[in-house]
């Protein structure tokens, strides 16, 4: 029997598989597609995802293939500058195509021992008190202790376990593709700048190899978005909005997306869980989708590993939904708001002009960017220090950096007093005695996902908090 089956080999599923393997969990990833998709839906990583990669020792790989940007405009395309004094050591956006992100995460998961099976479509599943049975299209049956659906907005797993997916259907649709153009780059830039004064869902971006990424509103909402749009529709819509089709030719791939907004009623049904787009879908405004899924996996991985390993305290696995459902709900709300602000109707345009004035205030600008980049997330751990429930930024220590100490996916007590102990939890929590000029508290207990579980200097108080996240003491 496998410990965990992950259905879906996109960024969420691959990140989850790697997180599970850090703890020795036997994991198999199954994906119905025979090969990774060439379609580039997401274009980069936001601050929190960059931190996640740093915490797991992956950031250098991503930096080799990406480009750092400190540009504004992420909230509804409002022309605000990148805010100063963000609470992070990585104050930038990393531009990197999703295809490369998928490849790097797949390599990481396989290096850690995950098994990836492509061309394997899930068609049925059942569960009992001991495990889950997954049925594949070729008749193969796989047995596991848990199964996680990371299989996208049309999730087969979600449908098979009967989880509702309430929300709003798509009202508008956008065409997306890569193709070459037949006019000079200066002409493209001038026309795009003029169109985008009123239509924010329009753009042509050079990819650096003769091709452009083209985004343009569609004619209407299709009945089946799994069917790619015709190239002629791209040209027709470009002419409708820009007065020219830019001489586009030689399409590499064509796709479409809508603005449907939905969230799963539950993230867990017994031994089956949902993550990423299988748990929530929303418009791509602000570039949050891929990042939200990676962060779901980062939250779930260590908790599910603890359950498989037998040391999870009661309620730990259910805290995945308790923490991540509100985060996704907030993303759904901010993308709804952004879509309204991108409308060409007079009312939304009036609100947009007002908000454009407000984002000139540094605090407003920072607040919106912290929301988009997810560094403003705070889980509800109860009353306590202002750091409690927040993720800890990377800080410099006398002997290195905090994030360098988190590569193994374990808990960590950063102790500046030298008087504390995690005896009884040393198999799950590292104890680091070191000091940082950037940290003005005596000690912090960090969960494997980097969120602060305790702040203080009293040993008895620490002993009262450790069991909540790391189970019973041993020995």
Task: Name its key features.
475 residues, alpha+beta, FAD/NAD(P)-binding domain, Alpha-Beta Plaits, Glutaredoxin, 3 domains, eight-stranded mixed β-sheet, four-stranded antiparallel β-sheet, 24 strands, 32% helix, 22% strand
**Percent of residues in beta strands:** 15-25%
CATH class of the largest domain: Alpha Beta
List segments where confidence is low: pLDDT < 50 over at least 5 consecutive residues: none
* SS-based class: alpha+beta
Task: Outline the biggest β-sheet.
Answer: 8 strands, mixed
| Rg, Cα atoms, Å | 23 Å
Assigned CATH superfamily of the largest domain: FAD/NAD(P)-binding domain
Helix content: 25-40%
Apparent shape:
globular
Span between termini: 30 Å
Tally of DSSP helical segments: 12
Mean pLDDT, to the nearest integer, reads 95
Number of strands: 24
CATH architecture of the largest domain: 3-Layer(bba) Sandwich
Query: What is the third-level CATH name, the topology of the largest domain?
Result: FAD/NAD(P)-binding domain
Integer count of domains: 3
